[in-house]
Amino acid sequence: MLLIAVTATLALPLLALQGLRDALTARNADVLAPLVDADRLRTSLAARIRARYVQGPDQRVPIEPIVERLLTPAGLIAAICDGGALTVDGRVPTGCDIHGSLSDLRFESASRFSAALNRDGAVAATVVMDRSGLHWRLVDLVLPPAAYDQFKDSVLN
Questions:
Q1: How confident is the model over 34-49, as pLDDT tens digits?
Q2: What CA–CA distance (Å, rounded) separates 122 from 125?
Q3: Quick one: which of 20, 57, 64, 100 has the fewest CB in 10 Å?
Q4: Cα separations in angstroms, 35 against 28, 89, 127
Q5: pTM of the prediction?
Q6: Domains observed in the chain
Q7: Sign of the alpha-carbon torsion through 71, 83, 117, 115
């Protein structure tokens, strides 16, 4: 019984991570939506973006429009797959070749893990997923600074 519990503890997060990667790679919003806890992701992204732009010349950056654009399926795909690049009409312009494996997983508890998703040899995003029952959902997203700037520019222009 203990072996089953340990196996499930490792296997389910890997399956969730693979599902997230597959949804992003396929650019499939219908598959991506149930993998995201939109309310918790909105809260964490707003705090992260606010912290990025609270000082300096960008302190008047409108936070909520950036968060709302980022929370769309196209926005999440653009942020993770393309470093934040969106076309003018909101479509994602390029392919998505991200990688994440067991060595990229960092367990914070039995119900929370983070994973670095890599693109072209660099971290494209760090995803944080929490368990709800047997399902895992995206609750936080750490992006490179340039990705936040891309979203800011797409909102302001």
A1: 999 999 999 999 998 8
A2: 9
A3: 57
A4: 11, 25, 12
A5: 0.82
A6: 2-156 (3.10.450)
A7: negative
